[in-house]
Specification:
The longest helix is centred in the first third of the chain and has 10 residues. The protein has a three-stranded mixed sheet. The relative contact order is 0.21. It has one domain. The N and C termini lie far apart (about 30 Å). It is an alpha+beta fold. It contains two helices and three strands; from the N terminus they run αβββα.
């Protein structure tokens, strides 16, 4: 999935302008299970989405789920440009 994302960024002239973080975003701090699919584009926090079109689910990972505004306050990501 990460390779696909970086390929898309490069193809659109955006490489070097985007940072990835190994977290999910939500309106509350928590953890969630991320389901990888044998088709990376189907990987999802929703286990049913990871198995669409008869795809098999692969590994599962429990990941941190954060609030974006909390990541800004903590300095992990910059605030939006105004």
């Amino acid at each position: 999935m990460k390779t696909l994302s970086w390929g898309n960024l490069a193809a659109n002239g955006l490489d070097g302008t985007v940072s990835t973080h190994p977290v999910g975003l939500s309106d509350e701090e928590s953890t969630a299970t991320f389901h990888r699919s044998v088709f990376p584009v189907l990987s999802s926090f929703n286990r049913y989405n990871a198995a669409r079109w008869e795809a098999e689910r692969g590994t599962r990972s429990v990941v941190s789920v954060c609030r974006l505004d909390g990541m800004v306050v903590d300095g992990e990501v910059p605030p939006p440009a105004t």
